[in-house]
Request: fold
Amino acid sequence: MKRVFVLAAMLGFSYYGFAQEKPLSPSEVKKENAATAVEEKEVAAEKSEAIKAIEEGKEIQVKSDPTKATSVKGQEVDPKVIKEKERKVKKGKNKKVADEKPLDAVDVAKENAATAEMEKKVAAEKTEAEVALAEGKEIVVRDSTTTHSATSKVNNSGFQRTVGFDGAWKFDMDLAARQITLTGGTLNNKGTASSNTLRLMVYLAEKPFDLNNPEFIGTVYSSVDIPALNAGDVQSGQTYTTAWASETNPPAGTYYPYILLGEQNPTTQEFEVKDVKAFDNSITITP
Reply:
């Protein structure tokens, strides 16, 4: 960790080597401290990635820093070229430093305190996996994602006679909020009369819905009622937030969503299936 100390002012002595260099400006100190903190955070992340790779039996390959390479595609680079580049970079830095005033003792103390705080946060962010590995414990990776999304097939089911789906629909399930948001796609009424009240019912199944061999499998997790559609009506790009129909969240596993469109029977008050929108892609919920 690179820090700035005002030893000469505080202890009343000077050192020849330090006397040959100009003091850092406030902006240079901030840049140095910030860069160091970022580097440490990146190192911590790389350690975590390496540990995960080892646990998965993958090979770890260590590569040199390309910014410090002395050869390009097997050819040695002339040392004079490297020195010239370093000289130009150093000249640019020195010009910026010369244009600014050096930090006093109070400012240095503030910058060092800020850097120490950043270091503390970086240390706190060391992964649980690193600690568990050091203690010989089993590492279990948990998914903190609470929102899961999927997009339906564009092709229609072919079930529609009056009201039905059209186009691709998007599914977003928020486990934390216990709700599912459906985004059209299109709902339309191809019949010659107004429909009755409609209902969208979202199911989660362990396999994709097969339009050639339809089975209403899985569990319904949410539903939403929609006002009737007049004959010839088309609703596109609408968003429907569905209430949670289940008392619990789906258990861990891989699921394929599908949406049933039901129309209320005025005699029985039950909702009869009119169409289905199937999804090929799945969502995965982890513990």
In short: Helices lie at 7-11, 16-19, 26-55, 79-98, 105-124, 128-134.
